[in-house]
């Protein structure tokens, strides 16, 4: 990749962020693997257990405005160091939890730390180092972080078998302090102000004039797809078990998902940037309802589960790229961050609501309840993408052909 060859300093930053983001995202996937053990130990229903992830995303959303000022004043490195120190006690609180209140308190700590360290902080750090080249660097990082579930679901299962879910929480707290914190403190770069050819800091361009209805459609597409992707990822193992798979078999199929998602994210690089976010979204989004129909009609047949994992993994992986690039069809790079910040609240709310809602449908109505809702939302997402395709600015439309 060109951006790796152009700045050797950027390679080191990407290695730091690849490791820390894998650990950060991988460890918070704890309920996806040990949700039943958590529920049995704490006397909580499965939907209540997954509500811990909802508390995390709501907390991340509420902390975002305050952290925006901290990132601007102190830089990503210092903020991410503080966020790591805040996250580690969250797992310690989970270790001591004997009732739901302390369980949710642990997720509040993880949400406060995650708002500083997960994704947003990483993208800001890359921008501090690469400036306008951060877009490609972010794409490269997405390829790596997509492996978090494939690596950490089996890892969580292994640690849980040896130490129980409580001991696993202590292991993850130690990983944050022994691995992530030193990498941020001693390896991650200090902030670098990016300037133009005249040595002046880049200034934001005036916002492009697009209809509010178009921006509303963009918000709907991103939020609805996030609802499906975050929800299905959280309940995937339980969903496959509800389809009749043995626990070990469900874990094996579920662990394949991350590898397939990462492979699909590489399509943007293989395509040489010829596709914009809307075109990628249309192709990827169409695969999601097809995958769900196959699973709903198969009654748990192994071939159908494999087909579902392949189609859903490819579609959701490519849609992750689309979610990050659809606003670029209508906004230039200077306004991209502002647009994404406006999308952050509904995006976080969808991420928070989806896991417990789908877990509740799974508990009450079986796999058909969860799949039915996600199928309807996925179909609606494709229809809205078609509408957005017709509203492309002329220059974006020409670039996409």
Automatic annotation (TrEMBL):
Task: Provide this UniProt record's keywords sorted from A to Z.
Answer: Membrane, Transmembrane, Transmembrane helix
Which InterPro entries does the entry mention? MFS, MFS_trans_sf, Proton-linked_MCT
The signal peptide annotation in the UniProt record is none
Does the UniProt entry include the keyword Phosphoprotein?
no
The superkingdom of the source organism is Bacteria
Give the transmembrane ranges.
12-34, 46-67, 79-97, 103-126, 138-159, 165-188, 215-237, 279-297, 303-331, 369-388
GO MF annotation: an example: transmembrane transporter activity
User: Pfam families of this UniProt entry?
Assistant: MFS_1
- PANTHER family xrefs: MONOCARBOXYLATE MFS PERMEASE (PTHR11360:SF290), MONOCARBOXYLATE TRANSPORTER (PTHR11360)
Q: State the name under which the record lists this protein.
A: MFS transporter
């Amino acid at each position: 990749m060109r951006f790796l060859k152009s700045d050797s300093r950027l390679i080191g930053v990407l290695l730091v962020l690849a490791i820390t983001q894998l650990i950060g995202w991988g460890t918070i996937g704890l309920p996806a693997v040990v949700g039943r053990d958590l529920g049995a130990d704490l006397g909580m229903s499965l939907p209540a257990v997954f509500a811990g992830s909802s508390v995390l995303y709501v907390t991340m959303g509420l902390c975002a405005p305050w952290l925006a000022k901290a990132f601007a004043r102190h830089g990503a490195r210092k903020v991410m160091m503080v966020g790591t120190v805040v996250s580690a006690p969250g797992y310690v609180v989970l270790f001591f939890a004997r009732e739901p209140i302390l369980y949710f308190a642990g997720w509040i700590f993880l949400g406060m730390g995650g708002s500083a360290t997960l994704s947003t902080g990483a993208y800001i750090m890359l921008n501090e180092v690469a400036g306008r080249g951060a877009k490609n660097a972010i794409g490269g990082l997405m390829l790596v972080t997509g492996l978090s579930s494939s690596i950490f679901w089996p890892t969580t299962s292994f640690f849980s078998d040896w130490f129980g879910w409580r001991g696993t929480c202590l292991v993850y707290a130690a990983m944050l302090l022994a691995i992530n914190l030193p990498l941020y403190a001693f390896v991650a770069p200090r902030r670098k102000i990016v300037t133009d050819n005249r040595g002046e800091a880049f200034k934001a361009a005036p916002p492009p004039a697009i209809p509010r209805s178009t921006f509303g459609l963009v918000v709907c597409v991103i939020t609805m797809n996030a609802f499906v992707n975050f929800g299905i990822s959280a309940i995937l193992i339980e969903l496959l078990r509800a389809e009749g798979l043995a626990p070990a078999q469900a874990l094996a199929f579920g662990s394949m998902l991350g590898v397939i998602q990462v492979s699909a994210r590489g399509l943007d690089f293989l395509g040489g940037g010829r596709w914009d976010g809307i075109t990628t979204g249309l192709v990827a989004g169409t695969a999601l309802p097809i995958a769900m129909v196959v699973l709903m009609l198969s009654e748990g047949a192994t071939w159908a589960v494999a087909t579902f994992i392949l189609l859903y993994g490819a579609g959701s992986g490519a849609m992750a790229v689309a979610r990050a690039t659809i606003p670029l069809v209508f906004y230039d790079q200077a306004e991209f961050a502002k647009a994404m910040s406006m999308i952050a609240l509904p995006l976080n709310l969808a991420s928070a609501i989806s896991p417990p809602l789908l877990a509740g449908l799974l508990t009450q109505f079986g796999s058909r309840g969860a799949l039915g809702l996600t199928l309807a939302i996925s179909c609606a997402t494709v229809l809205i993408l078609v509408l957005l395709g017709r509203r492309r600015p002329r220059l974006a439309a020409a670039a996409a052909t």
